[in-house]
Structures are given as C-alpha cells and as structure tokens.
Amino acid sequence: MRLFTQVHPNPKTVQIRVLELRLHPENTPLKIRLRRYLKSIGPNASILAGMWPLLLIILLGTALRFFHLGAQSLWYDEAFSLASADRLSLGQLLTNQGGDIHPPLYYLLLRVWIRVIGINDFTTRMISLWAGVLTIPLIYVTGRKLFDHPTGLWAALFFAVFPFHIYFAQEARMYTLLTLLTILSLWLFLQAIEGGRPLVWAAYWLCLVFGVYTHYFFAFVILVYYLYLILNWRKYRHLWLSMIITGGLLIPVFLTQAVIVLQKFATVLAPSYWLGRPHPLAFFTTLYFFVVSYTVPIWLNPIGLFILLAILVVGLYEQLRMRGRDSYLSHRLLLVLGAFLPIVIVLIISQFKPIFLERTLISCTPFLVLLLADRVRTSRWHSPIPYLSLVLAIVVVISLYRYYFDPTTRKPPLREAAQQVAASFRPEDMVLHTSVGSFLPFLFYEPPSEHYLLWGDPDPHLPASAYEAFGGRIVSREIIDGQRRLWLVVMLDHSTEYQLDQVRWFDDRCELTEGEDVSGIFIRLYNCTGD
C-alpha cells in the first residue's frame, strides 16, 4: 500500500522515492513496522528518531527556567545590572563608571533589551533565560561531536535540569551568557582543529572576543584550548600558526579594556575587598554546587558531595581500565582540563589574594556536564555509576523543589518591602537606606522616585560616586533636620553593627511611629520633628 513520498537522506543526490510498505495488521506489530520504516530511511534513522527526546529535553529545560521566573524580587546584583544598563550613559558604561569589575557586553545587551521591553522582575531576566535555553541544544551537538548521539542527549538533559543553571537562568546577570559562549567556543574549537575553514576560525575568534567581553575569567577557557594543543602537539602541530594568529588578533581588541582591567584588579586586590580566602574543600564543593546549586538541605550536602565525587573517581578508573591511558589524551583530556583547571588556578591565586567565587567559574560547567554524560553513557549496569547517578538525581530533585517552593531559599523580598513603603508613603516623606543591598533594588520599584543612601558604611561595596551615577543620593544623618516623616530601611546583609548603630541613633532622636519586619528587611517610620 502506497503511503507517502520521502526525500532520500543521501546529501550528494536528492531523489524522490516511494515507500512501498505492505502492512498486515493481523500479524505485524506496530513496533516491527516502525523498525522497518526507520531502517528504510537510511543510516541517519537513529539520529532522526533521537530528535524527539532532544526536543522534549529542550521543552523541559525551557519550562523549568520560565517557572516562577518573576516570583522573586530583584536583589543587589540584579539591581546593579539594571542600574548599569539603564542609568549610565553609553560612554559611562563602556568606561565602567559604575564601578563594576566585569566587562560591558552583557550590560550592553541588557540596555537594548530593556529599552525595547521595559523593566520588571520577569522581562529583565529574559536574556539570561534564553541564553540558558540555547545552551541545551548546543551542549547536545557538542556531546554528539565528542562522543555520540546518546551522550549528547545525556549532556542536554543534565544541563536542562541541574539547579545551578536554572538558578542563574533566572537571574539578571552575565553568567548564563558566559556559559553559552563557552560551549559555543568549545564546539567551534573542535570544528577548527578538525580542519575548519577560515570562516570557522573567524567565528571561533569572534566567540572568544564576546567571551572575554562578557567575563574576564573566560581567559581561562582560552588557556584550556592552548594547553590542550600543547599536550597534543604532535597531532595538532600544523594548527599552531592558526592558533597564534587567532590569539594575536585578540590582543588589539582587548586593549580597549586593558586599562579598566588593571584598575578593577587593583580594586579586587585591595584589602577591603569583600571576598575571603576559600576553605580547603572548596575545589570539591565547587564541583558539587555546579550540579545541585545552593538549595540542598545542609544535612544532605555531605551525602551528595560523596556521590558526585564517587561518580567522577569511579568513572576515571573505569575509563583508564577499559581503554588505557591513551584515552585521556583524546578529547576527554580537553574536558578534564576545562572542568578542573580554572578552579585550581583561581584557588591557588586565592591563597595569596582571594578572588574565588563559584559563580565566576561557571564556564567550567559545560566541560563537567559533558564528562558526567560520558561516564553515565558508557557505564555498564554492573558498574556502581548508574546507581550513584540515581541517588544524585534524587538530590537534584530535592534541590529544585526547595528552590521553587521553600521560602528559606528565596532572595530577599525587596519588592514586598518597597510595596510596604509605597502603601503609606506621602509626597513629603523621605526614604533612607542604611545598606546598598536595599538602596539599589528600591530604585526600580514603587515610588518615591528618589531614595537616599546613608553614607558611612565602614566597608562600602563601591565609592559614593558610583551610586550617584545610578541616580541615587548620598546623605549623612544630619539630613533629618526639618524632616517630619522619615522611612528608614534596614537590611542586615553586611556591616551589621554599623547599621544597628544607625537604628539606635534614629531611635534616640526621632519618634518611632511604625515598624515592620518583611522577612528580615526592617522598615521603620519616624517622626523627626517632635510634633
């Protein structure tokens, strides 16, 4: 019986053929008929059939990233992104007058986005969300290129559901864009070293430029590529001229940011910078957080950490046992370098001057996800890896549930605090903040249009000029002279003693007429005239 026509998958010749299938419903099961049909299509049948699982994985990852996207308030880091993109001029943004330590590409994209779409808790995070979604098919095609189709599917599934990536896909920061550029650069790097044409090398170079202009730690990704070629110099010695040209062309592009980089590193190296020295187990806990994020119950963390490390160690042992040392001079060596080397380098530097923060190393995660997918895909049922992976999957589900539904894992409810002030605000009122943690997000919520930051924090995040550039006003306590009603917003996120001192100072000089505690954000209304 003639059913339909089919385009033959042979890329050299396109021909139309008619599939003649003789169906015998009474004795031919549907499964056998489907197998015959896939066989008739040709060698690409398994890949074509595998696109349905990939599509479902992409839909799952998209749904998890959209779910509760605008449910949580903007917090300081996200408000800083908005302030940089919205309140600074283009010249101020390119010269980093906002005082950030990151390059400007993400802020430029966010600037264009909010000019078109507007600002609210939902739409502001859409760049991060779509960058996270696009990474899912990219990590699939990279996994398929490195290994095979099933490994690509496993990698896509892991990336789609790992809470760490969902968390940052719902945050208005540059980290998912950095991840997207990392996996794109990896795919282009593989294309280039396998005989890529000049157009591929040009796309690879452009991706590196975007990566460096997104986060300076992208330089570690570039270092991984060069180190991999050095370790395989006999195999790839014919590519060194291309790699040298590619790296050399990065230098003039980066020179525009060189002075700013030196200035910002001077800020990071200052004794007052807020990062502390990492703990001895930071290497292992970082790998763990890359998978399960920060929302796992404390009592479960040791178990989850042990499970993840066991998967990695057992997987390494099984790989070496099955295929020998030479297998790790293959592309798996590239994944090992990308997953672990940047963490090691930053940890070593941080022993002298702390610069370590897990999220800044998010570019390691595509390499780690591909390694885990390879281990799960190639392990046998007599191996402990499938059972360890099942336990780790339970930890991931618990983390996801707590991220979405447990109020103790949520960001500070600054939106609700701003609404609390707006509900009773009068035009003559003043809103004064003791912490930049509440001051900056309040700029993007309900009226009043002007907010005041009480200056005097012994450990300020940024100089006063940066906050003034964002449209805020820096004041001292003496501003209360002649002020009848004053709202004091206290968020004890840092410099706790300093902030409590300010509360006591206002309590002594003004009459407290109203006080609210919005989940740790204290709102106090004073009458400072004595009436």
Layout of strands and helices, then pairs:
Elements: E1 2-7, E2 16-20, H1 30-41, H2 45-66, H3 76-86, H4 90-94, H5 105-117, H6 126-146, H7 149-161, H8 163-169, H9 175-193, H10 198-212, H11 218-231, H12 233-236, H13 240-268, H14 282-292, H15 301-323, H16 331-350, H17 365-378, H18 385-405, H19 414-424, E3 430-433, H20 436-442, E4 452-454, H21 464-469, E5 473-475, E6 485-491, H22 496-509, E7 511-518, E8 521-527
Parallel strand pairs: 3-4, 3-6, 4-5
Antiparallel strand pairs: 1-2, 6-8, 7-8
Helix pairs in contact: 2-6, 2-7, 3-5, 3-20, 6-7, 6-8, 6-9, 7-17, 9-10, 10-13, 11-16, 14-15, 15-17, 15-18, 16-17
Describe the structure in your own words.
- The protein has helices spanning 30-41, 45-66, 76-86, 90-94, 105-117, 126-146, 149-161, 163-169, 175-193, 198-212, 218-231, 233-236, 240-268, 282-292, 301-323, 331-350, 365-378, 385-405, 414-424, 436-442, 464-469, 496-509; strands at 2-7, 16-20, 430-433, 452-454, 473-475, 485-491, 511-518, 521-527.
- It is α/β, with parallel strands linked by helices.
- It has 3 domains: 2-43, no CATH class; 48-409, no CATH class; 414-527.
- Helix 3 packs across helix 20, helix 6 runs antiparallel to helix 7 and helix 9 (175-193) runs antiparallel to helix 10 (198-212).
- The longest helix has 29 residues, at 240-268.
- It is globular, with a radius of gyration of 27 Å.
Features:
531 residues; alpha/beta; 8 strands
Question: Which stretches are low in confidence, meaning pLDDT under 50 for 5 or more residues running?
Answer: 1-27
The helix fraction, in percent, is 55-70%
Total strands: 8
Strand line-up across the major sheet: 5-4-3-6-8-7
Secondary-structure class: alpha/beta
Which percent band covers the strand fraction?
A: 5-15%
Mean pLDDT: 84
Number of helices: 22
Cα-based radius of gyration, to the nearest Å:
27 Å
Largest β-sheet summary: 6 strands, mixed
Order of helices and strands: EEHHHHHHHHHHHHHHHHHHHEHEHEEHEE
Broad shape: globular
Distance between the termini: 95 Å
The figure for the number of domains is 3
